[in-house]
Amino acid sequence: MGRNLKNVFIVSVGFLCLFTAYASLQGLQSSLNSEEGLGVASLSVIYGALILSSVLLPPIIIKNLGSKWTIVASMGCYVTYFLGNLYPGWATLIPTSVILGLGGAPLWSAKCTYLTISANQEAEENGKRARDLVNLYFGIFFLLFQSSAVWGNLMSALIFGQDPGIAEITEEDLWFCGATDSCEYPGSAVGNTTRPAQNLVNTLLGCYVGFGVLAMVLVAVLLDNIDGDVARTYRENREPLGSAVQGTFRHLKDKRQLLLIPLTIYSGLEQAFLSGDYNKYYVTCTMGIYFVGYSMICFGATNALCSLAFGKMAQYTGRFALFTFAAGMNCACIIALLCWKPHPDQLPVFFVFPAIWAMADAVWQTQINALYGVIFPDQRPAAFSNYRMWESTGFLIAFAYSNFLCVNVKLYILIGALLVSFGLYGWVEYEEQKNSTVWAQNINANFEEDMEDRELTA
Questions:
Q1: By C-alpha distance, which of 338, 35, 32 is closest to 188?
Q2: With contact defined as beta carbons under 8 Å apart, do 368 and 257 qualify?
Q3: What percent of the chain has pLDDT over 90?
Q4: Alpha-carbon dihedral sign for residues 92, 93, 97, 103
Q5: Residue 342 to residue 407: CA distance in whole angstroms
Q6: What is the pLDDT of residues 377-435, one digit of tens each?
Q7: Which of the residue ranges 35-39, 99-103, 150-154 has the most confident prediction, judged by mean pLDDT?
Q8: What are the backbone dihedrals phi and psi of residue 62, each rounded to the nearest 5 degrees, phi first?
Q9: 3-class secondary-structure state, position 49
Q10: What is the rounded CA–CA span in Å between residue 160 and residue 162?
Q11: Nearest to 341 by CA among 168, 185, 179
Q12: What does the pLDDT look like over 163-209, one tens digit per residue?
């Protein structure tokens, strides 16, 4: 295994361990800490802090610490949140949510920067196309990263499945499941949202803390510090603080970045819908909270396999074909969810929707990340800061209106956002293709002029 590929593997395994804990805990938050809406409030605080962090922190921290140590420090922020959940309360969970949110943007920006640098180094060393390697490396990363949903949810399902206090769901409750009648539900929750026994909760959270610490150790010990010299030089010739912070805002002057904002927001909206509304109003309402883990295992496994496949496939099909495929899959799911009335007798259908949604999400995750790395090669920290900021905005919007809008309205918002964002993304591709054609024509013209000069000289 080459050095660059080894580094990609270490980063991916580190994120796999960290998000085996976090992804599962995020999905359970509204049930584990439902009193006074503490769980949902903590998620809102996380993504609000993520937006602030995306604006202020990534360029500064990455330039000072380098990508490797930024990843390690940011992972520590996640571990504090896991510890806060051991003693949940407003005084513990909200501050640790802020810490996690502030560490989230540097973590993801550093990861994107690290993978892109690795791909460019490999391309220079072996004469390969950097664009193809960026797609491949992001595909490998998301293969391992997305499988975290499998292990985290399997862990929660097996541990919480030991709780004998599982409530039955009546036919009357089933009437309010799905998109059509969710707004008419008379209760404060749907389905079985009973909190599991405290000893089982502590066991699960202890596992989460262990996985978070393991992720930090793996990255700190095994990952190469490929941009350490750049960070060292920056610390010795440090630019003013305001200049580093303004990089994120200056990047918004690029028209391509502005056009990609809706698509990046949509990425957050669609992830939040599946993990929140689909699980609550379709899975939990119909099958019970303990079935959520199995539904998300299907999502995670499909997402992981498709991430690797699409990362490789992009070399042959190009980005636009994959984005078109993802948009079609999401549109089909949204229309079907508007019409479907879930029932326990339709067990296979509960796995069909997360599987199809995962196929689309695999494209959004791998290809939007790769797109930012390819079209903004000289502004990676600022570009990936914008990516994390606008995706976090999508999550925040979804959590903010979650308790106020009906499911069918949320689905209409999703399909509208998808159509608008896909159209603007197509504009970006058109501009990139046009600029690429002009560049190629200029190269050919210069080559022909050079040949003519050589003939005249001869």
A1: 35
A2: no
A3: 32
A4: positive
A5: 13
A6: 777 767 877 887 899 899 889 878 877 788 899 999 999 999 999 999 999 988 888 77
A7: 99-103
A8: -65, -40
A9: helix
A10: 5
A11: 179
A12: 665 556 667 777 778 887 656 554 444 444 456 778 888 999 999 99
Place of tokens 């664009």: 131
| Cα separation, 358 vs 360, whole angstroms | 5
What contacts 382, CB < 8 A, 6 or more positions away? Answer: 59, 247, 248, 250, 251, 376
| Contacts (Cβ under 8 Å, ≥6 apart) of 182 | 176, 190, 281, 406, 407, 408
Our CA angle for 17, 303, 208, nearest 5°, is 20
Letter for the amino acid at 164?
A: P
Q: Which two tokens stand for residue 249?
A: 């805002």
Are the beta carbons of 366 and 304 closer than 8 angstroms?
A: no
More confident residue, 350 or 229: 350
CA–CA separation, 413 vs 408, rounded Å? 9
> CA quadruple 45, 400, 382, 275: dihedral positive or negative?
positive
The confidence score (pLDDT) of residue 277 equals: 83
Q: Global pTM? A: 0.76
What gap in Å lies between CA 119 and CA 106, rounded to an integer?
A: 20
Confidence at residue 16, expressed as pLDDT on a 0 to 100 scale: 94
Distance CA 8, CA 1 (A): 11
Q: Which domain holds residue 267?
A: 3-457
Say if residue 371's pLDDT is above 80. yes
CB 20 within 8 Å of CB 145: no
* Domain of residue 50, CATH code: 1.20.1250.20
Domain count, the chain: 1
Enumerate residues 6+ apart whose C-beta is below 8 A from 254: 376, 379
Mean pLDDT, range 145-153, rounded to an integer: 83
Instruction: Report, as an integer, the average pLDDT of 314-323.
Output: 87
Q: Which residues contact 229 (CB under 8 A, 6 or more apart)?
A: none
Q: How far is CA 425 from the centre of its chain?
A: 18
Report the half-sphere exposure of 454 (CA within 13 A, side-chain side): 6
CA distances, 257 to each of 252, 263, 318 (Å): 6, 10, 20
Are 4 and 122 a contacting pair, CB within 8 Å? Answer: yes
**DSSP-derived 3-state class of residue 377:** coil
Among 243, 253, 219, smallest CA distance to 60 is for 243
Phi, psi of 175 (to 5 degrees): -60, -30
